[in-house]
Design goal:
Distance between the termini: 18 Å
Largest sheet: none
Helix content: over 70%
Shape: elongated
Number of helices: 3
Number of strands: 0
Order of helices and strands: HHH
Radius of gyration: 18 Å
Oligomer: single chain
Strand content: under 5%
C-alpha cells in the first residue's frame, strides 16, 4: 500500500468515525433525556441503562449509513491529489 492510499484510508476512517461518534452521542443523549423525563429515572440509570447501549447501537448504524452522504457532500474523497500539497509531484 502506498502512502497516498494509506492517507486516504485513514482520512476516510477518521471522518466516518468522528461523524458517527458525534451523531450517536447527540442522539443517545436526547433519547436518554427523554426516557429520564418520561419514566422518572435518575441520571445514572438513564445514562447507563439507556444512553450507553443506544450510543453503541447508533454508532454502528451511523458508521454503516454515513459514508454515502459524506461522500456526496464532498467530505470523503478517493482522489489522493486533493489531500494536500505533499502528494503533488
Amino acid at each position: 500500500m502506498n502512502w497516498e492510499r494509506l492517507y486516504a484510508m485513514l482520512q476516510i476512517c477518521f471522518m466516518i468515525g468522528l461523524a458517527s461518534a458525534f451523531s450517536a452521542g447527540f442522539w443517545s443523549f436526547v433519547v436518554a433525556g427523554l426516557c429520564r423525563i418520561a419514566f422518572g429515572l435518575g441520571d445514572d440509570e438513564s445514562m447507563l441503562l439507556i444512553g450507553l447501549p443506544s450510543f453503541f447501537a447508533l454508532f454502528l448504524v451511523f458508521a454503516k449509513l454515513l459514508p454515502k452522504p459524506l461522500r456526496k457532500a464532498g467530505m470523503l474523497s478517493d482522489d489522493p491529489s486533493k489531500f494536500g500539497p505533499w502528494f503533488k509531484g
